[in-house]
Amino acid sequence: EEPMIYFITPTYPRREQVAELTRLGQTLMHVPNLHWIVADDNRLCNAMVMELLKKFGIPFTHISSPMPEMYRKASTVPRGVANRRAALHWIQANVKHGVLYFGDDDNTFDLRLFNEIRSTRKVSMFPVGLIGDYGVSSPVIKDGKVIGFYDSWPAKRTFPVDMAGFAVNIDFFLKHPEASMPYKAGYEEDHFLKSLNISLDDIEPKADGCTQVLVWHTQTTKRPAPTVKIHKQSGTSLKE
Ligand code: UDP
Ligand code: MN
């Protein structure tokens, strides 16, 4: 039987959220043997998100884990960490086999990506498009092995890759109960991968030896905060 893909999506309330999750959900509807873990950066599971998730017909788990207040105030905020960590804990408590993958709600996925990551035995890696100044971030391959990384922000990282650029086998993940993602903006991937205790030799290059881009780090333009006043109406609690 084909291994199940546990697709972890951190998400948070903002005006673009329903649009992002609709596009992503309608991509995931095409993928067999996939379980969607939607990890809400919220005190409680957002009822609107829950109603949306039910409509896709995709097996899903909706969990909530808000970013601790102290990190929200940091100069560089570790986005989506509390909720990804909660998803990892959920996997540790509920799953035995499969493959886990971090798919942000605003990224773009080629359906061929899922065929690639499903056979991950330890950790697989592949290029991500629209990252940083180089426009792509990718492992560098020689003779079928990862020998380094091409990324415009190395930042002394051992594994300078994007969150969308790797997948992890769950049997392998469960063998590393200490594995964790830090609240350290920019270093989440690197620390998580290091906590799995891997070397370059363990990494399985996918996407035709890392020559194909099957996932893009697309970003939706955020509308700036409104400059118009929202007027107080009688009988409502709207503030001026
Ligand atoms: N995210 C979150 N809480 C936040 C900000 C972002 O859960 O306060 C999620 C977001 O929905 C996305 C992921 O974390 O799935 C990465 O955030 P974003 O896309 O804003 O960051 P990027 O890496 O694109 O700069
Ligand atoms: Mn993003």
UniProtKB/TrEMBL annotation:
Mn(2+) binds at residue 106. Pathway: Protein modification; protein glycosylation. GO terms for molecular function: galactosylgalactosylxylosylprotein 3-beta-glucuronosyltransferase activity; metal ion binding. It is found in: Golgi apparatus membrane. The keyword Signal applies. Its cofactor is Mn(2+). It comes from the Eukaryota. It is a single-pass type II membrane protein. Belongs to the glycosyltransferase 43 family. It is an enzyme of class 2 (transferase). One of its GO terms (cellular component) is Golgi membrane. Its EC number is 2.4.1.135. GO terms for biological process: carbohydrate metabolic process; chondroitin sulfate proteoglycan biosynthetic process. The active site is at 189 (proton donor/acceptor). The chain holds residues 56 to 295 of 327 of the full protein. It catalyses: 3-O-(beta-D-galactosyl-(1->3)-beta-D-galactosyl-(1->4)-beta-D-xylosyl)-L-seryl-[protein] + UDP-alpha-D-glucuronate = 3-O-(beta-D-GlcA-(1->3)-beta-D-Gal-(1->3)-beta-D-Gal-(1->4)-beta-D-Xyl)-L-seryl-[protein] + UDP + H(+). Keywords: Glycoprotein, Golgi apparatus, Manganese, Membrane, Metal-binding, Signal, Signal-anchor, Transferase, Transmembrane, Transmembrane helix. This is Galactosylgalactosylxylosylprotein 3-beta-glucuronosyltransferase. The lineage of its organism: Eukaryota, Metazoa, Ecdysozoa, Arthropoda, Hexapoda. Coiled coil: none annotated.
